[in-house]
Specification:
By secondary structure, the protein is an all-alpha fold. The chain has a domain of 178 residues. 82% of the residues lie in helices and 0% in strands. It starts with a helix and ends with a helix.
Length: 439
């Protein structure tokens, strides 16, 4: 949908640019032709083929299961091996013919047969059931196939298997060993590096989700026993998400050398996902999902100190990379969200302070999105402001004094942020004029 909106806007702008003589008609035609190659329609055949490949893999598995007793053990093993080897040979041939989409599908099909084969082999030889170990084995196999074949779909399978492995370990309730933490930490760059070298939206989001799951695993082992029910969890999560938002934004604005398309896309996706997570954490804490008691000594636990230190480093990176008005608004929004989450635990009864911080933070995020021309920032800020306003309005219904306080608070915050926006826009205009004069 956003691609179509962008293309419609681009066509309208190009007509204006042609009239002003900035772009020739030949150049405009080339721009639109290149844009047409990158729209969603070009990915439609691959998406349909992916769904078809998954259906075929499920059909093969169901066929074997339906004739389980009629097929001898040797034939089952030989069939699994032939399917895996044959699919990989098709992938290699397609790659040699420069058909990367077909090669990707064939490699993913081989990986899915490999996953189904593990389950069938376990049943044939009555091996003990070990879902955690099986998920790790699937992850290792798919990761190796993804790197060897450069398959994006297989990497997504590896990412999902890694996430399942970590979650099964957490679900078991057993203490996480240092070896498991190191192995999980190694899986994150192994998946993310593939997403950088072979850019794909699916693999990028898999790597980001895996990174947060591994961070959750570390939080539960580094924090106090009741970490999940404590506001410490919200503070640690918001601080880490905020630091990734700032690091990703700084990297997207000049922190990555030109040509590193995959790294830039990963940084941008990580910043977008973390921004949504940070605001959701603030809103969930605001409505009181976590306990409102935040013991002082536990604030010094590694689960809070480490993400807070990263947040400060990220703030310095943003101040260094972004223009001053953009950096100030981004810092106001991100640091405000983390501070709001922390104040909810430190001062649980100060509802006026909570409301002011939450409303101001959401407006600051929306303003930063407008100044930086980041649509997701603007949309997320507006959504957070609407959620906070609706919650406050629902809490004050039936009390005229409460509603008066709500509207007074909302008015003061909006007027204050309006002055801040006006100041930021003037600063941005002065900076642009100064840059133009310098050039």
């Amino acid at each position: 949908m956003f691609d179509q909106l962008y293309e419609r806007r681009l066509r309208a702008d190009i007509e204006t640019w042609i009239e002003r003589g900035w772009v020739t008609r030949e150049g405009a035609a080339r721009i639109l032709a290149d844009r047409g190659k990158a729209d969603g329609r070009s990915r439609l055949p691959l998406a349909l083929a992916t769904v078809g490949m998954i259906c075929i893999a499920l059909a093969v598995t169901a066929f074997i299961a339906a004739n389980w007793d009629d097929i001898s053990r040797s034939v089952r093993l030989a069939g699994i091996v032939l399917l895996v080897v044959g699919a990989n040979m098709v992938a290699a041939r397609a790659d040699a013919l420069e058909r990367p989409g077909l090669a990707d599908l064939a490699t993913a099909f081989a990986a899915m047969v490999f996953v189904a084969g593990l389950s069938l082999v376990g049943q044939m030889f009555h091996l003990p059931q070990d879902w955690t170990g099986g998920a790790l084995l699937v992850c290792a196999g798919c990761l190796a196939a993804a790197w060897i074949g450069g398959s994006r779909l297989t990497l997504a399978l590896a990412g999902v298997a890694a996430i399942v492995w970590v979650l099964l370990g957490l679900e078991s309730g057993a203490p996480t060993t240092m070896g498991d933490q190191v192995l999980a930490l190694c899986l994150v760059p192994a998946v993310a590096a593939h997403a950088v070298i072979h850019p794909a939206r699916l693999s990028r989001w898999c790597s980001i989700l895996l990174a947060y799951i591994v961070y959750l695993q570390w939080l539960l082992s580094a924090g106090p026993a009741s970490m999940v029910d404590s506001p410490l969890f919200a503070v640690a999560l918001a601080a880490m998400a905020g630091s990734i938002v700032l690091f990703g934004t700084a990297a997207d604005h000049g922190g990555i050398r030109p040509g590193s398309v995959g790294l830039r896309l990963l940084a941008r996706s990580a910043a977008d996902a973390s921004l949504v997570l940070m605001l959701c954490t603030m809103l969930v804490a605001f409505i009181g999902a976590w306990s409102r008691d935040l013991p002082g000594p536990e604030l010094l636990s590694p689960a809070v100190v480490l993400p807070s230190a990263l947040l400060l480093l990220a703030a310095l990176a943003v101040l260094r990379r972004l223009e001053r008005p953009q950096a100030l608004l981004a810092l106001l929004g991100v640091l405000g969200a983390v501070m709001t989450t922390a104040v909810l635990g430190l001062a649980p009864d100060q509802i006026v302070v909570h409301a002011a911080l939450a409303l101001g933070t959401s407006v600051a995020v929306a303003m930063a999105g407008i100044v930086m021309q980041q649509g997701l920032w603007t949309l997320s800020g507006h959504a957070a402001f609407t959620a906070v306003a609706l919650w406050l309005l629902s809490e004050t219904i039936g009390s005229l004094l409460g509603q008066a306080l709500f509207f007074l608070l909302a008015g003061i915050v909006l007027i204050g942020m309006a002055f801040a926006a006006s100041f930021s826009l003037r600063m941005a205009a002065r900076w642009a004029d100064g840059k133009g004069d310098a050039t």
